[in-house]
Structure formats: structure tokens, C-alpha cells
Amino acid sequence: MAADVDLGRVLLDDLVERFAGLRRLAERAMAQVGDDDLHRIPAEDLNSIDVIARHQAGNLRSRFTDFLTTDGEKPWRHRDTEFEEAGRSRAALEADWKSGWAALEGTLAALQPSDLLATVTVRGEPHTVLGALNRQLAHHGYHVGQIVTTARLLVGPAWTSLSVPRGGSGAFNASMGHDMGEEGRGV
């Protein structure tokens, strides 16, 4: 890497892409689920896709509204209610989801590399901006995994893989121009 590369800009650009990738993954999974199945609870003590998405949206709005100047846990957020089944329509789920992600995306677009080491608080606990962003990335990766797994269970055999399907690594690698040879097979 050249000495004049702005590491802060590289980090911010990477975080934008990582969050966008998680959002796309969840949206592609939810698109495969029927409207009624968005509210289906796959097993006792688990959450429906709608509940997980509502929690993510509430979390994003709370954390990224006035991100640099106020605590990430806003007094107007009622986290516990995010985990109650509400029977919302797909349109309501999507509107809520979009508003949460818009809060994050707007904040990311406004951040400058010089902000990365500033301190923000979440529930009174101090974090660097970079630390808070990485914390959120991990949190949303966890919940996107829940959405994908739940969707896959609900859709069953009609599921369309969101990544390289089982048994498809060789064909995928070949399509990408990678010849792994014998050493790259069998894992």
C-alpha cells in the first residue's frame, strides 16, 4: 500500500461495503419467504424473521441517530417491544427495515476518517467510532445469519442458495478463473 493511502478512508469504505453486503444477504433471504412465513417462529424460544428485522431496524435507528453526539441507546427506543410479534405486513416490515438502514447509511456517508478515533457512547459505555462500528457489524452479522437460517428452514427444498451452493465450489472457482488443482479440492 502506498504511504499516501488514507487508512481511515479505506476502513470507512470497507465498513460501508460490509454493512451493504449484510443488508443484501438478509434482503435476498427475506425475498424467498412467503408473507405469512415472515411471522412463523421456527422453534420454541426463537424469533420470527419479522421480529429479527424489527429489532435490527430499531437498533440501527437508535445507534445511528445523532451518532457522534448522543448515547446510542435512545430514550425513545423500546427494545423489549421489538421482540413482540406484531403481525405486520411485508410492506410495513420493509419500510421499517429501510428506515433503520437509512440511519446507518446516512451516518456512514457523513463520517470522516478523522472521526474514527472519536469517542461515542452506547448505554453509557465509551467506544471509539471504529469500535462502535465494528460492534454493530458483528451484531448485524449475527442477526442476518439468523434471518438466513430461518428463511432457509421455512423455504425448504425450494431455497435458492445465496452463496456458492454445496458441491459447487469447483464450478464457482472455474468461473472466477481459479484453477485450484488437486490440492484445492476435498475441503
Q: Which properties best describe this structure?
A:
187 residues; mainly alpha; Four Helix Bundle (Hemerythrin (Met), subunit A); two-stranded antiparallel ribbon; 5 helices; flat
Shape: flat
Which fold name is given in CATH as the topology? Four Helix Bundle (Hemerythrin (Met), subunit A)
Number of helical regions: 5
* Average pLDDT: 93
For the biggest β-sheet, the strand order reads 1-2
Secondary-structure element sequence? HHHEEHH
Q: Identify low-pLDDT runs.
A: none
Number of strands: 2
Detail the topology: elements first, then pairings.
Elements: H1 7-31, H2 49-64, H3 90-110, E1 119-122, E2 125-128, H4 129-155, H5 169-175
Antiparallel strand pairs: 1-2
What can you tell me about this protein's structure?
The mean pLDDT is 93. The protein has helices at 7-31, 49-64, 90-110, 129-155, 169-175; strands spanning 119-122, 125-128. The protein is mainly alpha-helical. It is built from five helices and two strands; from the N terminus they run αααββαα. The protein has a single domain (7-184), classed as Up-down Bundle (Four Helix Bundle (Hemerythrin (Met), subunit A)), CATH 1.20.120. Helix 1 runs antiparallel to helix 3 (90-110) and helix 1 packs parallel to helix 4 (129-155). The longest helix is centred in the last third of the chain and has 27 residues, at 129-155. The two termini are 32 Å apart. The protein has a two-stranded antiparallel sheet with strand order 1-2.
